[in-house]
Amino acid sequence: MKKETDFNLIAPVYYPLSRLVFGGAQEKAQAWFAPSVSPSDKVLIVGAGNGAAATHFPENEVFLVEPSSRMIRLARRTNMGRTKIHFYQGTIEQFLGSSHETFDTILTAFFFDLFPQEKAEKLFVMLDKRLRTGGTWIFADFQAGTTGFLHRLLLNTMYRFFSYLSHITASEMPEMKNSWRRSYHLYGQKHFFHRLIVAQLWKKDRQEYQSSPADSSFSRRL
């Protein structure tokens, strides 16, 4: 029988291990565009882990969705300051199926890398339906299609590691750029850890996607 993805076993060491390997680059990537979010925005954080990402939205109402019970326990112990937090333990499919909430901002940080291409695209569509027109989507993850030998070796090792311990179903990073093209505009982009990790800020428009310049010189406050 195929096992479900489960981060309970790895939860206590996931973040220390991340900092050991990436030197804090993952945390920096998920926080980079947080200052661009209006304090009045309602924020959805998908695959919230230990909840540290919520600390970058101190004035916002934040919904944390995380399947791992141990991760949720860690999140509840995290000092969120004045942030109004809603905790939900379960998959994003379960959350969206039980809630009619819509959001001004969505953060997916190292979330899509857990899924094969087809599943990642389906999850994107589900989330897109809950993001209001004019809203922002903060994306932080590993670069798809990386060509460097050391990058490929590191990603392959990570996928093997998490496949064994957490039973993730992906074996490579899905390519998400085509999912944005119909109704999103790229406002900013920043690379980390020798360009293996990327943070992007997308704006949901009514118009069809149009390419725009975006690089690390983008102002972190729109």
UniProtKB/TrEMBL annotation:
Transmembrane segments: none annotated. InterPro entries: Methyltransf_25, SAM-dependent_MTases_sf. Residues 43-135 form the Methyltransferase domain. Gene3D superfamilies: Vaccinia Virus protein VP39. Pfam families: Methyltransf_25. This is Methyltransferase domain-containing protein. It comes from Ravibacter arvi.
